[in-house]
Amino acid sequence: MIRVLLADDEAMIRAGVTAILAAGPDIEVVAQAADGREAVDLARAHRPDVALLDIRMPRLDGLAAAEEIVRTLPGTAVAMLTTFSEDAYVARALGGGATGFLLKSGDPHELIAGIRAVADGAAFLSPRVARQVIDGYGPRRLVRGAEARARVTVLTPREREVLGLVGAGLSNPEIAARLHLVEGTVKAYVSAVLDRLEVKNRVQAAVVAYEAGLVADDGEATAATA
After folding, report:
1. pLDDT at 175 over 50
2. Which of 14, 106, 140, 149 could serve as a FRET partner for 181 with CA atoms 20 to 30 Å apart?
3. The whole model's pTM is what?
């Protein structure tokens, strides 16, 4: 079972999200919080696989709560569930270590898929948020592409291949199957990629993969080049 902590200051939202997640037979909401401080305390008490946090909450907002959970509970993945997709929120959430960013206006199946993805160690962004991340660089996009291509030169061809698959949204088991490797080897490659690129998580690595051209516009990984 994927054990989930749900934090939202609106009881109706918590009830609705809990009902949606109950449709996934492998997902269980083990604790609910009404504010960010309570979310951090309950995360420490229950050690959930995923903390699903609203952004705007009293006492401690969801972004600050996410940063604290990521810092103190490395075994808990963090995903944001919010009405707001402003660039500043997305940037801070991903920069703080969240690996999922979902919108309350999204499809219920998207929510379940997102929980499963981040619990499995992959990244998951609402399609609307993903488009912002990929295309939201404005006039610096070409510069960022050149910078990203320079950054990935420190990787071996196999590491660039793994990075492209991370950027395409594949989990470690999926990458292992695609490359005919054992999952432990994939985990080692992913860890090495994060260290070499000096990024905190798979979402940040995926952004580098997109900027460097290792992921095609259709979401498929491109061939790694030396």
Report:
1. yes
2. 149
3. 0.67
DSSP for 5-63, written as a single string: EEE-S-HHHHHHHHHHHHTSTTEEEEEEESSHHHHHHHHHHH--SEEEE-SS-SSS-HH
Q: Which of 119, 64, 117, 118 is nearest to 95 (CA)?
A: 64
Name the average pLDDT for the chain. 86
Identify the residue with better confidence: 9 or 85: 9
CA separation for the pair 15, 20 (Å, rounded): 9
Q: Give mean pLDDT, residues 131-155.
A: 70
Q: Are 194 and 205 in contact (CB under 8 A)?
A: yes
Q: Cα-flanking dihedrals φ and ψ of residue 122, to 5°?
A: -95, 180
* Residues 6+ positions from 115 with CB-CB distance below 8 Å: 2, 4, 21, 24, 27, 50, 52, 79, 100
Q: Picking from 62-66, 150-154, 177-181, 204-208, which range would have the lowest pLDDT averaged per residue?
A: 204-208
Tokens 């996934």 belong to 24
81-88: average pLDDT: 80
Q: What does the alpha-carbon distance between residue 63 and residue 48 come to, in Å, rounded to a whole number?
A: 18
Q: How far does CA 52 lie from the centroid of its chain?
A: 11
CA distance 107 to 50: 19
Sign of the CA dihedral running 14, 19, 20, 22: positive
Going by their DSSP bridges, the two strands 124-125 and 100-103 should be labelled as parallel
H-run or E-run covering 79: strand 77-82
The answer to whether residue 226 scores a pLDDT higher than 60 is no
